[in-house]
Amino acid sequence: MNQETRIAIGCDHAAVAFKGELADFLRELGYEPVDCGCQEGCEAVDYPDIAEAVCGRITAGDCRTGVLVCGTGIGMSMAANKLPGIRAALCENCFSARYTRLHNDANVICFGARTMGPELAKELLRIFLESEFMGGRHQRRVEKIEALRQR
């Protein structure tokens, strides 16, 4: 499969089963999930390490986008957004999942395994993947986000 069909996916110890359900769903949609950890039976892991692994696959051009899951999704989104070229969004509703792509060109979606069910996450992931960045006036804003990171 090519880069456009490869989706990096990772979780901490709080979300292994949840990540598995999302990976299966990605396969159903015709994507190839690239598992960046952690695995069943793992000890506690540090979510910034998983965020870095997933985001590294995106910035290297190996994967189109990424999915990160921890207990709340907050830690993963905070860690991912520290990395150059990454725009991660914690999404809990359909509007946010769509507009983070349309207006912010987000390339990582984050979920909380303890704050939502996997069926909602699957719907939000589908919306995220089907939505395309609008560009135009939004491109200038995305460039300003990247400029903030450079300061």
Short description:
The protein has helices at residues 16-28, 47-59, 74-80, 94-102, 118-130, 137-150; strands at 6-11, 32-35, 65-70, 88-90, 108-112. With 151 residues, it is α/β, with parallel strands linked by helices. The longest helix is centred in the last third of the chain and has 14 residues, at 137-150.
Notes on the protein architecture:
It is built from 6 helices and 5 strands; from the N terminus they run βαβαβαβαβαα. It has 151 residues and is α/β, with parallel strands linked by helices. The mean pLDDT is 96.
Features:
151 residues, alpha/beta, 5 strands, globular, five-stranded parallel beta sheet, single chain
Task: Indicate the low-confidence ranges by residue numbers.
Answer: none
Which sheet architecture does the biggest sheet show? 5 strands, parallel
Binned, the helix content reads: 40-55%
Strand-residue fraction?
15-25%
The side-by-side strand order for the widest beta sheet comes to: 2-1-3-5-4
What is the number of strand segments? 5
Q: Any idea what the shape is?
A: globular
Whole-number mean pLDDT: 96
Q: Supply the number of helical segments.
A: 6
Radius of gyration: 14 Å
Cα-to-Cα separation, first versus last residue: 37 Å
Q: Name the helix and strand elements from N-terminus to C-terminus, one letter apiece.
A: EHEHEHEHEHH
